[in-house]
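Q: How would the structure tokens look for this protein?
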Amino acid sequence: MKNDIQIKLGKRIQQLRKIKGLSQEAFAEKINIATTTLSSIETGNAFMTSQTLEKILETLSISPQELFTFSDELSDGTMFEYITQKLDFIKQDTERLRIIYNVIKSL
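A: Here is the predicted structure in token form.
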């Protein structure tokens, strides 16, 4: 049975995966789970093991706090501040800059 946290967490994982530019297949392979399992996690139909959670955090290069911070709980100012902090942090990372550039360009 789906619950609110599973749905929010699944959407957040999907969002972060897409920002990273990974397909479900590529991401599932990196975290060593079946694509169908990842799909179930992202749709809120399943929850992950602690080992899978650790692999997700590592693969996405994020902290648990970042994963469990849902955008619908943040003010516009907080979201903007977070974005600018991240941009400053990644300004020397060409791969991530390209990803951010492509995301912003597509808006």
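The chain has a mean pLDDT of 88.

The CA atoms of residues 92 and 98 lie 11 Å apart.

Upvote if useful.
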